[in-house]
UniProtKB/TrEMBL annotation:
This is BTB domain-containing protein. SMART domains: BTB, SH3. Residues 296-337, 350-388, 494-510 have a biased composition (Polar residues). It comes from the Eukaryota. Residues 23-95 form the BTB domain. CDD domains: BTB_POZ_ZBTB_KLHL-like, SH3. Residues 526-588 form the SH3 domain. Transmembrane segments: none annotated.
Length: 588
Protein backbone atom coordinates (compact mmCIF):
# COMPACT_ATOMS: atom_id res chain seq x y z
CA UNK A 1 0.00 0.00 0.00
CA UNK A 2 1.33 3.43 -0.91
CA UNK A 3 0.31 6.96 -0.03
CA UNK A 4 0.70 9.86 -2.46
CA UNK A 5 0.87 13.45 -1.28
CA UNK A 6 1.11 15.31 -4.58
CA UNK A 7 -0.86 18.33 -3.38
CA UNK A 8 1.54 19.00 -0.53
CA UNK A 9 4.52 18.39 -2.80
CA UNK A 10 3.17 20.89 -5.32
CA UNK A 11 2.59 23.45 -2.58
CA UNK A 12 6.13 23.09 -1.21
CA UNK A 13 7.72 23.47 -4.64
CA UNK A 14 5.58 26.56 -5.26
CA UNK A 15 7.09 28.10 -2.15
CA UNK A 16 10.56 27.15 -3.42
CA UNK A 17 9.91 29.27 -6.49
CA UNK A 18 9.56 32.33 -4.26
CA UNK A 19 12.82 31.58 -2.43
CA UNK A 20 15.31 34.31 -3.41
CA UNK A 21 18.24 32.95 -1.37
CA UNK A 22 19.26 29.68 -2.99
CA UNK A 23 18.57 30.38 -6.68
CA UNK A 24 21.40 29.96 -9.20
CA UNK A 25 19.66 30.81 -12.51
CA UNK A 26 18.30 34.12 -13.84
CA UNK A 27 16.03 34.08 -16.89
CA UNK A 28 15.47 37.35 -18.79
CA UNK A 29 12.30 37.46 -20.90
CA UNK A 30 10.32 39.91 -23.07
CA UNK A 31 11.49 42.96 -25.03
CA UNK A 32 13.48 45.85 -23.62
CA UNK A 33 10.53 48.01 -22.56
CA UNK A 34 8.85 45.06 -20.80
CA UNK A 35 11.92 43.02 -19.87
CA UNK A 36 11.68 41.10 -16.63
CA UNK A 37 14.01 38.74 -14.76
CA UNK A 38 12.91 35.52 -13.05
CA UNK A 39 14.99 33.50 -10.60
CA UNK A 40 15.03 29.71 -10.65
CA UNK A 41 16.99 26.63 -9.62
CA UNK A 42 19.01 24.74 -12.19
CA UNK A 43 18.25 21.32 -10.73
CA UNK A 44 14.50 21.89 -11.14
CA UNK A 45 14.83 23.28 -14.67
CA UNK A 46 17.05 20.42 -15.82
CA UNK A 47 14.69 17.66 -14.76
CA UNK A 48 11.49 19.40 -15.81
CA UNK A 49 12.52 20.65 -19.26
CA UNK A 50 14.94 19.05 -21.77
CA UNK A 51 15.26 22.49 -23.36
CA UNK A 52 16.60 24.10 -20.17
CA UNK A 53 18.86 21.09 -19.63
CA UNK A 54 20.62 21.92 -22.92
CA UNK A 55 20.54 25.68 -22.38
CA UNK A 56 22.16 25.47 -18.96
CA UNK A 57 25.13 23.64 -20.47
CA UNK A 58 25.99 26.68 -22.61
CA UNK A 59 24.61 29.48 -20.43
CA UNK A 60 26.92 32.33 -19.41
CA UNK A 61 27.75 32.86 -15.73
CA UNK A 62 27.99 36.26 -13.99
CA UNK A 63 30.24 37.32 -11.12
CA UNK A 64 27.86 35.74 -8.59
CA UNK A 65 28.17 32.33 -10.29
CA UNK A 66 24.59 32.67 -11.49
CA UNK A 67 23.74 31.41 -14.97
CA UNK A 68 21.91 33.77 -17.32
CA UNK A 69 19.35 32.63 -19.92
CA UNK A 70 17.79 35.21 -22.27
CA UNK A 71 14.43 34.59 -24.00
CA UNK A 72 13.26 37.89 -25.54
CA UNK A 73 10.47 36.32 -27.64
CA UNK A 74 8.54 35.04 -24.60
CA UNK A 75 6.39 37.59 -22.79
CA UNK A 76 6.74 38.05 -19.05
CA UNK A 77 3.08 37.12 -18.53
CA UNK A 78 3.46 33.80 -20.36
CA UNK A 79 6.77 32.85 -18.74
CA UNK A 80 5.38 33.48 -15.27
CA UNK A 81 2.69 30.87 -15.97
CA UNK A 82 5.27 28.46 -17.42
CA UNK A 83 7.58 28.81 -14.42
CA UNK A 84 4.68 28.14 -12.04
CA UNK A 85 3.83 25.01 -14.01
CA UNK A 86 7.46 23.81 -13.88
CA UNK A 87 7.54 24.10 -10.09
CA UNK A 88 3.99 23.17 -9.08
CA UNK A 89 2.37 21.49 -12.09
CA UNK A 90 -0.54 23.96 -11.90
CA UNK A 91 -1.92 26.18 -14.68
CA UNK A 92 -4.66 28.59 -13.68
CA UNK A 93 -7.59 29.38 -15.97
CA UNK A 94 -7.02 32.34 -18.28
CA UNK A 95 -8.25 33.83 -21.56
CA UNK A 96 -8.10 31.88 -24.82
CA UNK A 97 -5.38 33.92 -26.52
CA UNK A 98 -3.10 33.48 -23.52
CA UNK A 99 -3.75 29.73 -23.60
CA UNK A 100 -2.75 29.64 -27.28
CA UNK A 101 0.47 31.61 -26.66
CA UNK A 102 1.19 29.39 -23.66
CA UNK A 103 0.82 26.29 -25.85
CA UNK A 104 3.26 27.63 -28.47
CA UNK A 105 5.90 28.66 -25.92
CA UNK A 106 5.51 25.44 -23.94
CA UNK A 107 6.22 23.52 -27.13
CA UNK A 108 9.33 25.64 -27.72
CA UNK A 109 10.60 24.88 -24.20
CA UNK A 110 9.88 21.16 -24.81
CA UNK A 111 7.20 20.94 -22.14
CA UNK A 112 5.33 18.26 -24.08
CA UNK A 113 2.77 17.41 -21.42
CA UNK A 114 1.62 21.01 -21.08
CA UNK A 115 1.66 21.73 -24.81
CA UNK A 116 -0.41 18.68 -25.75
CA UNK A 117 -2.91 19.25 -22.96
CA UNK A 118 -3.50 22.84 -24.07
CA UNK A 119 -3.79 21.75 -27.70
CA UNK A 120 -6.54 19.27 -26.82
CA UNK A 121 -8.27 21.87 -24.66
CA UNK A 122 -8.38 24.43 -27.48
CA UNK A 123 -9.80 21.95 -29.97
CA UNK A 124 -12.43 20.57 -27.63
CA UNK A 125 -13.61 23.74 -25.91
CA UNK A 126 -12.39 26.75 -27.94
CA UNK A 127 -13.00 25.66 -31.54
CA UNK A 128 -14.97 28.84 -32.44
CA UNK A 129 -12.00 30.96 -31.38
CA UNK A 130 -9.64 28.78 -33.44
CA UNK A 131 -11.78 29.25 -36.54
CA UNK A 132 -12.06 32.99 -36.01
CA UNK A 133 -8.26 33.38 -35.72
CA UNK A 134 -7.39 31.02 -38.56
CA UNK A 135 -4.75 33.27 -40.15
CA UNK A 136 -3.03 33.93 -36.82
CA UNK A 137 -2.75 30.28 -35.86
CA UNK A 138 -2.46 28.37 -39.12
CA UNK A 139 0.75 29.96 -40.37
CA UNK A 140 2.39 29.59 -36.92
CA UNK A 141 1.84 25.82 -36.85
CA UNK A 142 2.17 25.21 -40.60
CA UNK A 143 5.93 24.57 -40.64
CA UNK A 144 6.01 22.88 -37.24
CA UNK A 145 6.35 19.15 -36.78
CA UNK A 146 4.17 19.37 -33.67
CA UNK A 147 0.49 20.25 -33.19
CA UNK A 148 -0.73 17.36 -35.32
CA UNK A 149 -4.23 17.52 -33.84
CA UNK A 150 -4.52 21.23 -34.65
CA UNK A 151 -3.33 20.61 -38.20
CA UNK A 152 -5.97 17.93 -38.69
CA UNK A 153 -8.58 20.27 -37.21
CA UNK A 154 -7.70 22.97 -39.74
CA UNK A 155 -7.37 20.52 -42.64
CA UNK A 156 -10.93 19.34 -42.06
CA UNK A 157 -12.10 22.93 -41.70
CA UNK A 158 -10.39 24.00 -44.94
CA UNK A 159 -11.89 21.12 -46.90
CA UNK A 160 -15.43 21.57 -45.66
CA UNK A 161 -15.72 25.36 -45.45
CA UNK A 162 -13.02 27.20 -47.43
CA UNK A 163 -15.31 30.18 -48.01
CA UNK A 164 -15.24 31.04 -44.31
CA UNK A 165 -11.45 31.27 -44.54
CA UNK A 166 -11.35 33.29 -47.75
CA UNK A 167 -14.00 35.73 -46.50
CA UNK A 168 -12.57 36.20 -43.01
CA UNK A 169 -11.44 39.67 -42.04
CA UNK A 170 -7.82 38.59 -41.55
CA UNK A 171 -7.56 36.50 -44.72
CA UNK A 172 -5.20 38.99 -46.36
CA UNK A 173 -2.76 38.57 -43.46
CA UNK A 174 -2.27 34.85 -44.06
CA UNK A 175 1.28 33.88 -45.01
CA UNK A 176 2.03 32.93 -48.60
CA UNK A 177 3.21 29.42 -47.71
CA UNK A 178 -0.04 28.68 -45.90
CA UNK A 179 -2.08 30.10 -48.79
CA UNK A 180 -0.18 27.98 -51.31
CA UNK A 181 -0.86 24.85 -49.29
CA UNK A 182 -4.58 25.62 -49.45
CA UNK A 183 -4.54 26.29 -53.20
CA UNK A 184 -2.80 22.96 -53.85
CA UNK A 185 -5.73 21.02 -52.43
CA UNK A 186 -7.95 19.23 -54.92
CA UNK A 187 -10.87 18.99 -52.50
CA UNK A 188 -11.69 22.67 -51.90
CA UNK A 189 -15.47 23.01 -51.96
CA UNK A 190 -15.61 26.40 -53.65
CA UNK A 191 -15.99 27.61 -57.23
CA UNK A 192 -12.73 28.22 -59.08
CA UNK A 193 -13.68 31.75 -60.11
CA UNK A 194 -14.15 32.64 -56.45
CA UNK A 195 -10.67 31.30 -55.70
CA UNK A 196 -9.35 33.62 -58.42
CA UNK A 197 -11.12 36.60 -56.86
CA UNK A 198 -9.76 35.74 -53.39
CA UNK A 199 -6.20 35.45 -54.72
CA UNK A 200 -6.43 38.83 -56.45
CA UNK A 201 -7.75 40.35 -53.23
CA UNK A 202 -4.88 38.83 -51.22
CA UNK A 203 -2.25 39.97 -53.73
CA UNK A 204 -3.49 43.57 -53.82
CA UNK A 205 -3.50 43.67 -50.00
CA UNK A 206 0.20 42.76 -49.95
CA UNK A 207 1.03 45.99 -51.83
CA UNK A 208 -0.95 48.93 -50.39
CA UNK A 209 0.55 51.30 -52.99
CA UNK A 210 -1.54 49.81 -55.81
CA UNK A 211 -4.35 52.14 -56.96
CA UNK A 212 -7.86 51.26 -55.84
CA UNK A 213 -9.22 52.04 -59.33
CA UNK A 214 -8.15 49.32 -61.76
CA UNK A 215 -8.58 51.71 -64.70
CA UNK A 216 -5.64 53.75 -63.37
CA UNK A 217 -3.24 50.83 -63.15
CA UNK A 218 0.00 51.10 -65.08
CA UNK A 219 2.09 48.28 -66.50
CA UNK A 220 4.33 48.57 -63.45
CA UNK A 221 1.35 47.99 -61.20
CA UNK A 222 0.43 44.78 -63.04
CA UNK A 223 4.06 43.62 -62.89
CA UNK A 224 4.12 44.23 -59.14
CA UNK A 225 0.96 42.16 -58.65
CA UNK A 226 2.32 39.41 -60.92
CA UNK A 227 5.50 39.23 -58.82
CA UNK A 228 3.48 38.93 -55.61
CA UNK A 229 1.28 36.14 -57.03
CA UNK A 230 3.94 34.25 -59.00
CA UNK A 231 3.65 31.20 -56.70
CA UNK A 232 -0.17 31.28 -56.54
CA UNK A 233 -1.21 31.88 -60.15
CA UNK A 234 -0.05 28.46 -61.49
CA UNK A 235 -2.34 26.76 -58.95
CA UNK A 236 -5.57 28.22 -60.40
CA UNK A 237 -7.63 25.76 -62.50
CA UNK A 238 -8.30 28.25 -65.32
CA UNK A 239 -9.76 25.73 -67.77
CA UNK A 240 -12.54 24.85 -65.31
CA UNK A 241 -13.82 28.43 -65.03
CA UNK A 242 -16.89 29.27 -67.15
CA UNK A 243 -16.20 31.46 -70.16
CA UNK A 244 -18.39 34.33 -68.96
CA UNK A 245 -16.44 34.46 -65.69
CA UNK A 246 -13.14 34.43 -67.57
CA UNK A 247 -14.31 37.43 -69.56
CA UNK A 248 -15.73 39.29 -66.57
CA UNK A 249 -13.25 38.51 -63.77
CA UNK A 250 -9.99 37.26 -65.33
CA UNK A 251 -9.68 39.40 -68.46
CA UNK A 252 -9.19 42.70 -66.53
CA UNK A 253 -6.03 41.15 -65.00
CA UNK A 254 -4.80 39.28 -68.08
CA UNK A 255 -1.51 41.23 -67.95
CA UNK A 256 -0.46 39.23 -64.88
CA UNK A 257 -0.95 35.95 -66.80
CA UNK A 258 1.52 34.38 -69.19
CA UNK A 259 0.75 35.26 -72.79
CA UNK A 260 0.61 31.60 -73.81
CA UNK A 261 -1.91 30.85 -71.06
CA UNK A 262 -4.24 33.62 -72.20
CA UNK A 263 -4.02 32.46 -75.83
CA UNK A 264 -4.81 28.89 -74.78
CA UNK A 265 -7.80 30.06 -72.75
CA UNK A 266 -9.14 31.99 -75.74
CA UNK A 267 -8.63 28.98 -78.01
CA UNK A 268 -10.19 26.59 -75.50
CA UNK A 269 -13.48 28.47 -75.32
CA UNK A 270 -13.60 28.93 -79.09
CA UNK A 271 -12.45 25.40 -80.03
CA UNK A 272 -12.86 23.14 -76.97
CA UNK A 273 -11.61 20.01 -78.77
CA UNK A 274 -8.29 21.51 -79.86
CA UNK A 275 -5.17 20.72 -77.74
CA UNK A 276 -3.48 23.50 -75.78
CA UNK A 277 0.15 24.04 -74.77
CA UNK A 278 -0.46 25.24 -71.22
CA UNK A 279 -0.66 22.87 -68.27
CA UNK A 280 -4.26 21.91 -67.56
CA UNK A 281 -4.82 21.05 -63.91
CA UNK A 282 -7.68 18.68 -63.01
CA UNK A 283 -10.91 20.08 -61.64
CA UNK A 284 -11.29 20.22 -57.90
CA UNK A 285 -13.41 17.51 -56.30
CA UNK A 286 -16.57 19.08 -54.90
CA UNK A 287 -18.63 16.30 -53.35
CA UNK A 288 -21.32 18.58 -51.93
CA UNK A 289 -22.41 22.12 -52.82
CA UNK A 290 -20.84 24.92 -50.85
CA UNK A 291 -22.97 26.26 -48.02
CA UNK A 292 -24.16 29.87 -48.20
CA UNK A 293 -21.38 32.36 -47.59
CA UNK A 294 -21.17 34.03 -44.19
CA UNK A 295 -19.04 36.72 -42.68
CA UNK A 296 -16.85 34.94 -40.18
CA UNK A 297 -17.13 37.82 -37.71
CA UNK A 298 -20.90 37.42 -37.36
CA UNK A 299 -21.81 35.91 -33.97
CA UNK A 300 -23.77 32.73 -34.50
CA UNK A 301 -23.53 29.18 -33.24
CA UNK A 302 -20.27 27.28 -33.33
CA UNK A 303 -20.45 23.81 -34.79
CA UNK A 304 -19.27 20.67 -33.01
CA UNK A 305 -15.88 20.96 -31.33
CA UNK A 306 -15.29 17.32 -30.49
CA UNK A 307 -11.75 16.37 -31.65
CA UNK A 308 -12.96 12.92 -32.66
CA UNK A 309 -15.85 14.12 -34.77
CA UNK A 310 -15.86 15.43 -38.30
CA UNK A 311 -16.92 19.03 -38.18
CA UNK A 312 -19.74 18.84 -40.64
CA UNK A 313 -22.40 21.08 -39.20
CA UNK A 314 -22.84 24.68 -40.24
CA UNK A 315 -19.76 26.56 -38.94
CA UNK A 316 -20.21 29.95 -37.44
CA UNK A 317 -18.11 31.90 -35.02
CA UNK A 318 -18.58 34.00 -32.00
CA UNK A 319 -16.53 36.79 -30.53
CA UNK A 320 -17.25 35.46 -27.06
CA UNK A 321 -15.56 32.35 -25.69
CA UNK A 322 -18.70 31.36 -23.85
CA UNK A 323 -21.74 29.89 -25.57
CA UNK A 324 -24.71 32.19 -26.05
CA UNK A 325 -28.15 30.62 -25.94
CA UNK A 326 -30.00 33.91 -26.35
CA UNK A 327 -29.77 33.64 -30.14
CA UNK A 328 -31.83 30.46 -30.00
CA UNK A 329 -34.50 32.01 -27.83
CA UNK A 330 -34.76 35.01 -30.12
CA UNK A 331 -35.79 32.72 -32.97
CA UNK A 332 -32.53 32.70 -34.95
CA UNK A 333 -32.73 29.03 -35.94
CA UNK A 334 -31.93 29.23 -39.65
CA UNK A 335 -28.36 28.04 -39.10
CA UNK A 336 -29.50 25.26 -36.79
CA UNK A 337 -31.40 23.52 -39.58
CA UNK A 338 -28.10 22.52 -41.17
CA UNK A 339 -26.80 20.94 -37.97
CA UNK A 340 -26.49 17.17 -38.27
CA UNK A 341 -27.83 14.77 -35.71
CA UNK A 342 -25.44 12.23 -34.18
CA UNK A 343 -25.89 8.53 -34.98
CA UNK A 344 -28.58 6.70 -33.01
CA UNK A 345 -27.61 5.40 -29.55
CA UNK A 346 -28.01 1.77 -30.64
CA UNK A 347 -29.00 -0.13 -33.74
CA UNK A 348 -32.38 -1.14 -32.38
CA UNK A 349 -33.46 2.50 -32.16
CA UNK A 350 -36.05 3.35 -34.77
CA UNK A 351 -36.95 6.87 -35.85
CA UNK A 352 -40.23 8.33 -34.79
CA UNK A 353 -42.60 9.62 -37.39
CA UNK A 354 -44.58 12.78 -36.86
CA UNK A 355 -47.74 10.69 -36.40
CA UNK A 356 -46.06 8.72 -33.61
CA UNK A 357 -44.93 11.91 -31.91
CA UNK A 358 -48.42 13.35 -32.20
CA UNK A 359 -50.07 10.22 -30.80
CA UNK A 360 -47.64 10.12 -27.88
CA UNK A 361 -48.20 13.78 -27.08
CA UNK A 362 -51.97 13.35 -27.21
CA UNK A 363 -51.73 10.69 -24.52
CA UNK A 364 -50.10 13.18 -22.12
CA UNK A 365 -52.50 15.23 -20.01
CA UNK A 366 -55.63 13.81 -21.59
CA UNK A 367 -54.87 15.16 -25.04
CA UNK A 368 -54.80 18.83 -24.01
CA UNK A 369 -51.02 19.36 -23.84
CA UNK A 370 -49.94 22.77 -25.03
CA UNK A 371 -48.29 23.05 -28.46
CA UNK A 372 -48.88 19.55 -29.72
CA UNK A 373 -46.76 18.62 -32.72
CA UNK A 374 -48.94 18.57 -35.81
CA UNK A 375 -48.53 15.92 -38.45
CA UNK A 376 -47.39 18.45 -41.03
CA UNK A 377 -44.68 20.00 -38.84
CA UNK A 378 -41.94 17.88 -40.39
CA UNK A 379 -42.01 18.28 -44.19
CA UNK A 380 -41.41 15.37 -46.51
CA UNK A 381 -38.64 16.39 -48.94
CA UNK A 382 -39.93 13.90 -51.51
CA UNK A 383 -43.26 15.76 -51.64
CA UNK A 384 -41.80 19.26 -51.91
CA UNK A 385 -42.27 20.25 -55.52
CA UNK A 386 -40.44 23.54 -55.03
CA UNK A 387 -37.08 21.77 -54.72
CA UNK A 388 -34.80 21.17 -57.71
CA UNK A 389 -34.88 17.67 -59.26
CA UNK A 390 -31.48 16.79 -57.76
CA UNK A 391 -32.93 17.15 -54.27
CA UNK A 392 -36.10 15.20 -54.96
CA UNK A 393 -34.35 11.84 -55.17
CA UNK A 394 -34.63 9.63 -52.07
CA UNK A 395 -31.40 8.94 -50.22
CA UNK A 396 -30.63 5.52 -48.76
CA UNK A 397 -29.88 5.73 -45.08
CA UNK A 398 -30.19 3.09 -42.35
CA UNK A 399 -32.44 5.27 -40.22
CA UNK A 400 -33.92 7.58 -42.85
CA UNK A 401 -37.60 8.40 -42.47
CA UNK A 402 -39.59 10.56 -44.86
CA UNK A 403 -41.69 12.19 -42.15
CA UNK A 404 -39.19 13.08 -39.46
CA UNK A 405 -35.59 14.31 -39.53
CA UNK A 406 -33.89 11.99 -37.06
CA UNK A 407 -31.73 10.54 -39.80
CA UNK A 408 -28.26 11.81 -38.97
CA UNK A 409 -28.03 13.67 -42.31
CA UNK A 410 -28.39 17.31 -43.25
CA UNK A 411 -32.08 18.09 -43.83
CA UNK A 412 -33.19 20.13 -46.82
CA UNK A 413 -33.98 23.72 -46.01
CA UNK A 414 -37.72 24.44 -46.23
CA UNK A 415 -39.09 26.46 -49.09
CA UNK A 416 -40.47 29.96 -48.64
CA UNK A 417 -44.02 28.59 -48.71
CA UNK A 418 -43.22 26.13 -45.95
CA UNK A 419 -41.59 28.88 -43.86
CA UNK A 420 -44.84 30.85 -44.11
CA UNK A 421 -46.75 27.78 -42.95
CA UNK A 422 -44.43 27.45 -39.96
CA UNK A 423 -44.98 31.10 -39.07
CA UNK A 424 -48.73 30.59 -39.26
CA UNK A 425 -48.48 27.53 -37.02
CA UNK A 426 -46.42 29.47 -34.48
CA UNK A 427 -49.02 32.26 -34.54
CA UNK A 428 -51.83 29.73 -34.01
CA UNK A 429 -49.92 28.17 -31.12
CA UNK A 430 -49.53 31.59 -29.53
CA UNK A 431 -53.26 32.26 -29.88
CA UNK A 432 -53.94 28.83 -28.34
CA UNK A 433 -51.79 29.68 -25.31
CA UNK A 434 -53.60 33.01 -24.88
CA UNK A 435 -56.97 31.25 -25.15
CA UNK A 436 -55.98 28.67 -22.55
CA UNK A 437 -54.75 31.42 -20.25
CA UNK A 438 -58.14 33.13 -20.53
CA UNK A 439 -59.85 29.82 -19.75
CA UNK A 440 -57.75 29.48 -16.61
CA UNK A 441 -58.78 32.96 -15.50
CA UNK A 442 -62.44 32.10 -16.11
CA UNK A 443 -62.05 28.87 -14.11
CA UNK A 444 -60.52 30.80 -11.22
CA UNK A 445 -63.39 33.29 -11.32
CA UNK A 446 -65.91 30.44 -11.37
CA UNK A 447 -64.20 28.79 -8.39
CA UNK A 448 -64.37 32.08 -6.50
CA UNK A 449 -68.12 32.36 -7.19
CA UNK A 450 -68.63 28.77 -6.02
CA UNK A 451 -66.77 29.51 -2.79
CA UNK A 452 -68.91 32.60 -2.27
CA UNK A 453 -72.09 30.55 -2.72
CA UNK A 454 -70.72 27.97 -0.26
CA UNK A 455 -70.17 30.69 2.36
CA UNK A 456 -73.72 31.94 1.92
CA UNK A 457 -75.12 28.41 2.18
CA UNK A 458 -73.07 27.80 5.30
CA UNK A 459 -74.38 30.99 6.84
CA UNK A 460 -77.97 29.88 6.22
CA UNK A 461 -77.19 26.48 7.66
CA UNK A 462 -75.55 27.95 10.75
CA UNK A 463 -78.64 30.03 11.57
CA UNK A 464 -80.66 26.81 12.00
CA UNK A 465 -78.21 25.48 14.59
CA UNK A 466 -78.89 26.22 18.21
CA UNK A 467 -75.94 28.04 19.81
CA UNK A 468 -76.29 25.94 22.96
CA UNK A 469 -75.62 22.73 21.00
CA UNK A 470 -72.30 23.96 19.57
CA UNK A 471 -68.88 23.47 21.12
CA UNK A 472 -66.34 26.31 21.43
CA UNK A 473 -64.73 25.81 17.96
CA UNK A 474 -68.11 25.61 16.24
CA UNK A 475 -69.28 28.71 18.11
CA UNK A 476 -66.18 30.63 16.93
CA UNK A 477 -66.77 29.48 13.36
CA UNK A 478 -70.39 30.63 13.50
CA UNK A 479 -69.37 34.01 14.93
CA UNK A 480 -66.79 34.43 12.15
CA UNK A 481 -69.40 33.78 9.47
CA UNK A 482 -71.77 36.31 11.03
CA UNK A 483 -69.17 39.02 11.66
CA UNK A 484 -66.98 38.52 8.53
CA UNK A 485 -69.19 36.99 5.84
CA UNK A 486 -66.58 37.53 3.09
CA UNK A 487 -63.89 35.44 4.83
CA UNK A 488 -63.44 31.82 3.60
CA UNK A 489 -65.41 29.24 5.52
CA UNK A 490 -63.53 26.49 7.32
CA UNK A 491 -63.26 23.57 4.89
CA UNK A 492 -64.11 20.85 7.38
CA UNK A 493 -67.38 22.61 8.39
CA UNK A 494 -68.43 22.85 4.75
CA UNK A 495 -67.51 19.24 4.04
CA UNK A 496 -69.53 18.04 7.02
CA UNK A 497 -72.52 19.98 5.78
CA UNK A 498 -72.14 18.44 2.32
CA UNK A 499 -71.28 14.95 3.65
CA UNK A 500 -68.08 14.84 1.50
CA UNK A 501 -64.61 13.60 2.40
CA UNK A 502 -61.72 16.10 1.94
CA UNK A 503 -59.91 13.72 -0.44
CA UNK A 504 -62.93 13.67 -2.74
CA UNK A 505 -62.87 17.45 -3.07
CA UNK A 506 -59.10 17.67 -3.63
CA UNK A 507 -59.18 14.90 -6.24
CA UNK A 508 -62.02 16.59 -8.10
CA UNK A 509 -60.16 19.90 -8.23
CA UNK A 510 -56.84 18.29 -9.16
CA UNK A 511 -58.48 16.47 -12.05
CA UNK A 512 -59.92 19.72 -13.36
CA UNK A 513 -56.63 21.59 -12.98
CA UNK A 514 -54.36 18.82 -14.32
CA UNK A 515 -56.50 18.43 -17.39
CA UNK A 516 -55.48 21.84 -18.75
CA UNK A 517 -52.28 22.33 -16.74
CA UNK A 518 -49.63 24.49 -18.44
CA UNK A 519 -46.12 24.20 -17.02
CA UNK A 520 -43.54 26.98 -17.24
CA UNK A 521 -39.84 27.27 -16.47
CA UNK A 522 -38.42 29.77 -13.98
CA UNK A 523 -38.19 32.55 -16.57
CA UNK A 524 -41.76 31.99 -17.81
CA UNK A 525 -40.84 29.91 -20.86
CA UNK A 526 -43.66 27.39 -21.56
CA UNK A 527 -42.81 23.67 -21.62
CA UNK A 528 -44.28 21.88 -24.62
CA UNK A 529 -43.73 18.36 -23.28
CA UNK A 530 -41.10 16.17 -21.60
CA UNK A 531 -38.75 13.53 -23.00
CA UNK A 532 -36.78 10.75 -21.36
CA UNK A 533 -33.19 10.11 -22.49
CA UNK A 534 -32.25 6.68 -23.84
CA UNK A 535 -28.47 6.90 -23.34
CA UNK A 536 -25.65 9.19 -22.27
CA UNK A 537 -24.74 12.14 -24.51
CA UNK A 538 -21.74 14.49 -24.30
CA UNK A 539 -22.61 17.94 -25.57
CA UNK A 540 -20.77 20.24 -27.92
CA UNK A 541 -21.15 24.04 -27.93
CA UNK A 542 -24.74 25.26 -27.65
CA UNK A 543 -25.79 21.71 -26.69
CA UNK A 544 -26.69 20.07 -23.40
CA UNK A 545 -25.29 16.86 -21.95
CA UNK A 546 -27.39 14.19 -20.28
CA UNK A 547 -27.24 10.69 -18.89
CA UNK A 548 -29.53 7.72 -19.37
CA UNK A 549 -32.95 8.18 -17.82
CA UNK A 550 -32.86 11.97 -17.47
CA UNK A 551 -36.14 13.86 -17.94
CA UNK A 552 -35.76 16.96 -20.14
CA UNK A 553 -38.40 19.67 -20.61
CA UNK A 554 -38.71 20.48 -24.32
CA UNK A 555 -38.91 24.20 -25.04
CA UNK A 556 -38.93 24.07 -28.82
CA UNK A 557 -39.29 21.36 -31.48
CA UNK A 558 -37.28 21.96 -34.66
CA UNK A 559 -37.58 20.42 -38.10
CA UNK A 560 -34.09 18.93 -38.28
CA UNK A 561 -34.52 16.82 -35.14
CA UNK A 562 -32.40 19.06 -32.89
CA UNK A 563 -34.72 20.17 -30.09
CA UNK A 564 -34.17 22.81 -27.42
CA UNK A 565 -34.42 21.85 -23.76
CA UNK A 566 -33.11 22.63 -20.29
CA UNK A 567 -31.04 20.51 -17.90
CA UNK A 568 -29.61 21.04 -14.43
CA UNK A 569 -25.82 20.74 -14.12
CA UNK A 570 -23.16 21.71 -11.58
CA UNK A 571 -23.05 25.30 -12.86
CA UNK A 572 -26.83 25.69 -12.75
CA UNK A 573 -29.62 25.38 -15.29
CA UNK A 574 -28.41 25.25 -18.90
CA UNK A 575 -30.43 25.46 -22.10
CA UNK A 576 -29.35 24.22 -25.47
CA UNK A 577 -29.80 21.77 -28.30
CA UNK A 578 -30.04 18.00 -27.93
CA UNK A 579 -30.62 15.17 -30.46
CA UNK A 580 -34.22 14.02 -30.34
CA UNK A 581 -33.33 10.54 -31.60
CA UNK A 582 -31.59 9.95 -28.26
CA UNK A 583 -34.90 10.39 -26.40
CA UNK A 584 -38.47 9.19 -26.18
CA UNK A 585 -41.65 11.01 -25.23
CA UNK A 586 -42.11 10.86 -21.44
CA UNK A 587 -45.60 10.18 -20.11
CA UNK A 588 -46.05 11.63 -16.62
Amino acid sequence: MSFKFFDKLSQDFSELLNDKKEYNVVIEVDQEENKKCFTAHSVVLRYRSPYFDKELENATTNENHTKIIIKPKISAQIFKIILKYIYSGIVDNTDTKTIYELMVNANELELKELSRKLESYLIEYKAPWLRTHFSLIYHSIFNSNEFKSLKKFYDDFIVEYPTLIFESEDFTSIQETALISILKRDDLKVEEIKIWDYIIKWGIAQNPTLPTNLQKWSNENFKALKTILQQCLPLIRYFHIPGKDIWKNVKPYKKILEEQLWDDLTQYFMFPNQPVKSLVLPARIISTPELPSRNISTPEFPFSTSPNQKHNSLPTTTSNDDGNYMNIRQGNTQSLRMKQLPPPPYEQATPRTSQQVTSQLQSIGGGNTINKVQSNTYPNPLQNTNLPPSQLQPQNHPIFNNNFYVTGRIPILPSQQHQQQLMQQQHQQQLMRQHQHQEQLMQQQQQYQEQLMQRQQHQRHSKKISPSSLNNNQQQELNQCQIQPNQPVHQQQYLKSQSLHPHQISSQHSQKNDHNRVQFLDDGTPVQFYVKTLCDYKAGPDEISFTTGDIIPVIKVQEDGWWIGEVLCDSGKVRGLFPSNYTEIFKD
